[in-house]
Amino acid sequence: TTTTTTCWYEILGLPQLSDTDAVKKAFRQMSLKHHPDKGGDVDKFHELQQASQYLLDPAQKKEYDAKISQVTMADLQRKQREEKMGAERKRMADDLLRRETQELKRPKHVINDLKAKARKHVEDMQVKRAQQAQERAHLLGKDVKRGDIKQRTIRVSWSNSKGSHSDETLVAAFREYGEIELVKMKGPDSARIIFVNALSALYNI
Fold it and tell me: Which residue numbers delimit the J domain (predicted)?
């Protein structure tokens, strides 16, 4: 019984689908080499005879060649599928490697981005605070009109057990902080001191 797994062409050292003339020539050459009378191997010689007889039968050769063609086409299609699958696997592997590489790099990018945002936030806050400080300094540094008396006034109190104060003693005690416009006594232990500008009052808060 012969199947497509028995490669008669290979036994004769021929490529598949070789013609009849090539089969005859190959058999003559191989039989001279492996003939038992020439010291060759009996089994090998018998195998050569089977191959040549099979391939020199037109009907059997036609059927055999057709099966080989089908097998060859199937092998070709399988090979193409494997190549396609191999290319797809390679693409998937490359894609996975790319994603993994990105994942490894991402924390560094995220950290750098967070650092940049943090620096920007700090810088913005510093600018904002500087602007606010300038605005406060501008408002407090300028002379305040009499209508802004609350901003220019401070209230002071003391304990009578440690002594008493008068307009003169209070002016002497607070004039180093700025020019005093008026001292209003509010009783034996308290008074209101009104400065010429609000900045002087701020120093005493």
Answer: 7-68
SS (H, E, C) the chain: CCCCCCCHHHHCCCCCCCCHHHHHHHHHHHHHHHCHHHCCCHHHHHHHHHHHHHHCCHHHHHHHHHHHHHHHHHHHHHHHHHHHHHHHHHHHHHHHHHHHHHHHHHHHHHHHHHHHHHHHHHHHHHHHHHHHHHHHHHHHHCCCCHHHHHHHEEEEECCHHHCCCCHHHHHHHHHHHCCEEEEEECCCCEEEEEECCHHHHHHCC
> Which pLDDT score, from 0 to 100, does residue 146 have?
44
- How high is the pLDDT of residue 174? 83
pLDDT means per 10 residues in the chain (205 residues)? 64 90 93 88 92 92 86 73 77 74 63 72 72 59 53 82 79 81 87 78 57
* Structure-block tokens of residue 61: 């050769």
pTM given for the model? 0.35
- Please state which CATH class domain 149-200 belongs to: alpha beta
Residues in the chain: 205
- Tokens representing residue 24 in the block: 């005859």
